[in-house]
Amino acid sequence: MKNYLFTIVVVLAFALALFFPQFFTEVNGFQMKRLIVPLLQIIMFGMGATMSWRDFVNVVKMPKAVFVGLICQFTIMPFVGYGLATGFGLPAEIAAGIILIGSSPSGLASNVMSYLAKANVALSITITTIATLLSPLMTPALMKLLAGQFIEISFWNMMWDIVKMVLLPVILGLVINQLLGKKGEWLKRLLPILSMAGIATIITVVTAAGRDSLLAIGWLMVLAVVLHNGLGYVLGYWLARLFGLDEQSCRTVSLEVGLQNAGIASGIALKLGKFATMGLAAALFGPLMNFTGSILANWWGKREVLENE
After folding, report:
1. Residue 177's closest CA among 80, 51, 304, 34?
2. Which 8-state DSSP code applies to residue 207?
3. Contact yes or no for 110/255 (Cβ under 8 A)
4. What is the rounded CA–CA span in Å between residue 212 and residue 206?
5. Rounded distance, CA 298 to CA 90, Å?
6. How far apart are CA 210 and CA 215, in angstroms?
7. 84 or 298, which is more confident
8. Cα–Cα distance between 264 and 252 in angstroms, integer?
9. Which of 63, 175, 207, 255 is a good FRET partner for 17, with 20 to 30 A between their CA atoms?
């Protein structure tokens, strides 16, 4: 059950917001959506605080696997998202939200799932780290290319928003980690708990805000998100196979591609003023990916990795 604890919390948060949205949109005149960016910054700070320079050394140690993982990360999900958004004929801002979650980097969940899946955890951390650092450039570029036909996208404004929400907190966390060294162990124990609580809160607030849009679109939206997530796992794994990576690395790439950073997507949707529409895909994708990712990771974890795989 411990392996599924975070998944259970996220799914419960989603369900509560879906059935009782009035408790998660406004409290005593305070708009709950104002918590999104500060919470995301705390989560990103926590990510930086668990990083070290060794994570970047892995780029030199296994350059092919890192390169393949990053290529898959920034091609499969954005273009699959675009295909689903146009193929399903979703409303413009909803469609842009699906492309947005696909254009976001992988999240911290992929590192945990890689551990459970007996995958290459070092590779997972490295891909997540590099993808996150590249996101101020890659996410706006992909959104401009793929979502520009649905909504107006300002590359430079989005890039600066991501720098403030993601890059600066990550760098600050990395610096603090290096300065504190072993004295910062208490912080490393505390930040994952805060990050999990932050992710659950973000999903709750976004779901509550987008509840009416979700109910209006119904199962079509759910189907699009399910396919997006599932195709990420499948295409990530088999493209890694095609490039000749070992079984552990293929599992890692699959999870890195299928598990996106819903928090970053939610923050961008908020900055664009389209929280209840563009943020809807992230609100659905977050609980779903943790549910499916946990199942896949635990299934892989029960299968031994053979040397000749």
Report:
1. 51
2. H
3. yes
4. 11
5. 34
6. 9
7. 84
8. 21
9. 255
Average of per-residue pLDDT across 243-267: 93
Tell me how far the alpha carbon of residue 2 is from its chain's centroid. Answer: 21
The values of phi and psi at residue 106, to 5°, are -70, 160
Tokens of 49: 């605080």
Task: Calculate the alpha carbon distances from 84 to 175, 210, 223, 234 in Å.
Answer: 40, 20, 10, 16
Give the Cα separation of 304 and 203 in Å (integer). Answer: 34
Where is 31: in which H helix or E strand?
Answer: strand 30-31
- In this predicted structure, what is the pLDDT of residue 98? 94
Look at the block and give the residue holding tokens 């930040």. 191
Q: Which residue has the higher pLDDT, 200 or 227?
A: 227
3-state secondary structure 124-192: HHHHHHHHHHHHHHHHHHHHHHHCCCCCCCCHHHHHHHHHHHHHHHHHHHHHHHHHHHHHHHHHHHHHH
Dihedral angle sign, alpha carbons of residues 89, 87, 228, 145: negative
CATH fold of the domain at 31-179+201-301: Na+/H+ antiporter like fold (1.20.1530)
Distance CA 234, CA 240 (A): 10
